[in-house]
Design a protein that fits this description.
single chain; alpha+beta; Alpha-Beta Plaits; six-stranded antiparallel sheet; 14 helices; 15 strands; binds guanosine-5'-triphosphate; Diguanylate_Cyclase; transmembrane; membrane; GGDEF_dom; Nucleotide_cyclase
């Protein structure tokens, strides 16, 4: 059997577990996805800024290239009219300031006219008419540019390059500014390396740390996801930029701090912890209230009920604090108390009925037998004498026959009442059966027993109940036999009854309306009224 406390505890723990599960579900399925979606938006915004910085840079490069390519001096230079144009306008300082890696003037068919480059690795600036000797390092760029312009319409173009190093390139046809529709004489291409200084400038503009990696033959590799959450406080965002040659890809990567996500997560965890703490406190308070309001009183009621089964603990009054309650438990306790009292009354009535003779109201034979056993046992221990008197109405059959049975009953009742009054608290009077009565005196002696027997006989005679057919007197008389259990010669109940019965028999035989005692008693003469 599980106690109420256990059941309540189990239920509340189950409810608490469900609540925790619900919190976990809310966190896992609602809050964290929402936070991650917000973080994705944040990443898109940041990467958008980086891409737009890159685009602006590319646009600037394109603008510079177009400006140089549409300058009349450049057009003249391509015509051979201004041979010093390039050498005098371009220098290492300018390349460093403009962050240019190289530039090349070429004819429409891609033949180089003049090229210059600043190699940051060797910190050298060189100019050449072809990608040879000190300008050899420019040849990979030049070759791609050459291939590109072969397929390009004569207008400004800006694009990204993957190898030999990530770079942005602008190519523009060389045309005169104000000479109407004269054909372009060649191409100007300017290359800007996307290396560490470029990363620094992007970081300066956007506040984001970026890097660029070329991915050659992108069809052959598995692209990593656009967002990789490296740790709790950092993520790696990737954007794919188309580049030449061979449809390569530049992987633009940025390491972003997960500040918002961390802050939101910390706030949510803080709220969760408080929620769990409040939940736990509520559970404990509910348990305490349950214990105080229901469980403890219920246990008191159960304990009280249990005690009632043990006779020596019987009590009709429940604990006051239970009875005084103004709730369901209080009314249950009060109802229970009424039930107990009612039960007690019925038990008392039944006990009374089981001990009494229904006609005379005297104690019955069953009670007499039990009482006699008890009285003799106690007298034996306390070394007392027990007196037993048997009374029988004389010629009662004749009485019945003459006056009728109901009148006989009436006579029995009146005789019984008289004897009960005479004995009073000296002992008990029982109806042993028919017209025979027994008196037991638990603490007595021979003399007192004899005297009471005589008082009984005289009292019945004094009632003067007419008895026309009695042969000893004109009224109802009794014969009495008595016996005593002495401490020095104790008797068993049956023996004492037998001795008293024998005395009665002798009294009857001797003429009735008299007393006879057990033979050890002094002999007494017949007393006749
Ligand atoms: N009215 C009435 N009569 C009863 C009751 N119980 C027993 N009796 C009668 O009591 C009578 C007892 O008669 P007996 O035992 O023959 O003795 P007796 O006539 O009294 O004569 P002795 O005892 O020898 O003097 C019987 O007639 C029973 O019917 C009772 O409850 N009511």
């Amino acid at each position: 059997m599980h106690s109420l406390r256990f059941r309540f505890l189990l239920s509340i723990v189950l409810v608490a577990c469900l609540a925790l599960l619900a919190l976990w579900g809310i966190a896992h399925f609602l809050v964290y996805p929402k936070l991650l979606a917000r973080e994705n938006d944040y990443v898109a915004l940041e990467m958008g800024r980086v891409e737009s910085a890159l685009k602006d840079d590319l646009d600037n490069l394109g603008g510079d290239t177009r400006d140089w390519a549409s300058w009349d001096d450049a057009y003249d230079f391509m015509q051979g009219k201004a041979p010093d144009f390039a050498e005098s306008n371009f220098s290492q300082e300018m390349f460093e300031d403009m962050d240019h890696l190289m530039m090349v003037f070429m004819r429409m068919d891609g033949t180089p006219v003049w090229m210059a480059g600043y190699n940051p690795d060797t910190d050298t600036y060189s100019t050449c008419t072809s990608a040879t000797n000190e300008c050899r390092w420019m040849s990979p760029f030049f070759n791609v540019i050459q291939a590109h312009v072969h397929q390009q319409a004569p207008e400004l173009d800006k694009w990204l390059l993957s190898v030999p190093t990530p770079a942005m390139i602008a190519t523009s046809p060389i045309v005169p500014t104000e000479r109407g529709s004269e054909p372009p004489l060649g191409w100007l291409a300017i290359v800007r390396s996307m290396d560490r200084p470029w990363f620094e400038s992007v970081r300066h503009q956007t506040g984001v740390n970026v890097s660029i990696e070329p991915i050659l033959h992108p069809d052959l590799i598995v692209k990593p996801p656009p967002i990789i959450r490296i740790s709790d406080d950092q993520l790696l965002a990737t954007r794919w930029l188309n580049a030449e040659p061979n449809d390569d890809i530049l992987s633009l990567q940025a390491t972003l701090a997960r500040r918002d996500f961390m802050a939101n997560t910390a706030s949510f965890n803080f709220a969760m912890l408080w929620t769990i703490g409040v939940l736990f406190t509520v559970v404990m308070v509910i348990l305490g209230l349950l214990e105080f309001i229901i469980l403890a009183p219920t246990r008191r009621l159960a304990r009280f009920t249990r005690e009632q089964r043990q006779e020596d603990h019987f009590s009709e009054t429940l604990p006051v604090n239970l009875i005084a309650r103004r709730d369901e438990l209080g009314s249950l306790a009060r109802e229970f108390q009424h039930l107990l009292m009612h039960q007690k009354q019925r038990t008392d009535t039944l006990e009374h009925l089981s001990q009494r003779d229904h006609l005379t109201g005297l104690l019955n034979r069953r009670y007499l037998d039990e009482y006699l056993v008890q009285a003799l046992t106690q007298a034996h221990q306390a070394r007392h004498s027990v007196g037993l008197i048997i009374i029988d109405i004389d010629y009662f059959k004749a009485y019945n026959d003459h006056y009728g049975h109901p009148e006989g009953d009436h006579c029995l009742t009146r005789v019984a009442r008289t004897m009960d009054r005479v004995v009073d608290d000296q002992g008990i009077v029982a109806r042993a059966g028919g017209e025979e009565f027994v008196v037991v005196l638990p603490e007595t002696n021979r003399k007192r027993t004899w005297r009471l027997a005589e008082q009984l006989r005289l009292a019945v005679a004094a009632m003067s109940l007419p008895h026309e057919h009695s042969r000893v007197a004109p009224h109802v008389t009794i014969s009495v036999g008595m016996a005593i259990s002495l401490p020095e010669a104790p008797c068993q109940p049956a023996e004492l009854m037998r001795l008293a019965d024998e005395s009665l028999y002798r009294a009857k035989k001797a003429g009735r309306n008299r007393i006879d005692a057990h033979h050890r008693e002094p002999h007494h003469q017949i007393d006749t009224l």
